[in-house]
Amino acid sequence: MLTPMKKGLVLEGGAMRGLWTAGITDVMMEHNIWPDGLIGVSAGAAFGCNYKSRQIGRAIRYNTHFAKDERYSGWKSLFTTGDYFNAKFGYHIVPFEYDKFDIDAFENNPMEFVVVCTDVETGQPIYHRMSHVDYNELEWLRASASMPLASKVVKVEGWKLLDGGVSDSIPLKYFEEQGYKRNVVILTQPLGYQKKRNPLIPLMRIALHKYPYFLRAMEERHMMYNCQLEYVAEAERLERCLVIRPDEPIPIGHLSKDANQMRYVYELGRAVGERYIDKIKEYYED
Predict the structure, then answer these.
(1) Does the first or last residue of the chain, that is N or C, have fewer Cβ atoms within 10 Å of its Cβ?
(2) What single string gives the DSSP state of each residue in 233-267?
(3) Which alpha helices (H) appear in 96-220, and where do they start and end?
């Protein structure tokens, strides 16, 4: 008896570019497309958790609602707490008081949900399976999306963590190794994009001087990322994955607080989702 191929969904990060991805994943949910597993990096994890909880529209809703709320994000939060996106308010108050995260739906959904973080002491990726929701689990989610310089190191369960995109930006290879052989990969950069060396490395050397292996990962990130793009392109050529990428650069900054711009980017994503929905269904059902 043949074992069905596991269907995976791989979500790249990209800070507020993740709202473009959220537009696509909302369309997928509206069309009752439920993969067996989802792996998310940074914003791909922070917004992708709503796929497991089956909450269509939640990511764009709370981001636009709190876009200019100083309790949620901003320079005041960065200077007073060390985090541009306020850790307590964004990850431990909003999901329980203002835009409630459906914990029961998340925990009862059999879909595997994996978040990628970077261990600052080794510079290596950590893959964390999140099957329930409590304070520590939400800290893993926060760690995945904690950008260097815009966030403090996140300490959870003995680990010291930051942005998963530093060590594994597009974790297709990892998911394939976990048995996911039919993967939809959603990227947030257009075809032909090549990452360049981060110009803020000198500042990071000062702020993160205690973590030399993490700094090395940051210095080499552009090379790692471009190699992963090559891996994805080859997998796409061999039909091991279906890749969805924007036609042109997504018009939003990493730390945008413009709600109208957020909605525009989200709607761009929805339009792409509608354009690809039949291809996604066909690919998963093949």
Answers:
(1) N
(2) HHHHHTTSEEEE--SS--S--TT---HHHHHHHHH
(3) 103-108, 135-144, 172-177, 201-207, 212-219
Contact in structure between 23 and 269 (CB atoms under 8 Å) = yes
Global model pTM greater than 0.85: yes
Residue 57: how many other CB atoms lie within 10 Å: 14
CA torsion angle 7 224 13 146 (round to 10): 130
Distance CA 67, CA 52 (A): 24
Q: Give the closest residue to 118 by CA, choosing from 240, 204, 211.
A: 211
- Residues near 83 by Cβ (< 8 Å), separated by ≥ 6? 77, 146, 150, 151, 152
Q: Nearest-CA neighbor of 163 among 4, 6, 36, 15? A: 15
Q: How far is CA 105 from CA 99, 125, 156, in A?
A: 15, 28, 24
Spatial distance between the Cα atoms of 23 and 272, rounded to a whole number of angstroms: 8
Asked if the model's pLDDT at residue 1 lies above 90, the reply is no
Dist CA 93 CA 67 (whole Å): 15
9 residue type, one letter: L
The average confidence (pLDDT) of the chain is 96
Residues near 234 by Cβ (< 8 Å), separated by ≥ 6? none
Burial class (CB in 10 A: 0-12, 13-18, 19+), 167: buried
**In this structure, how many other beta carbons lie within 10 angstroms of the beta carbon of residue 155?**
12
- Per-residue pLDDT tens over the stretch 54-94: 999 999 999 999 999 999 999 999 999 999 999 999 999 99
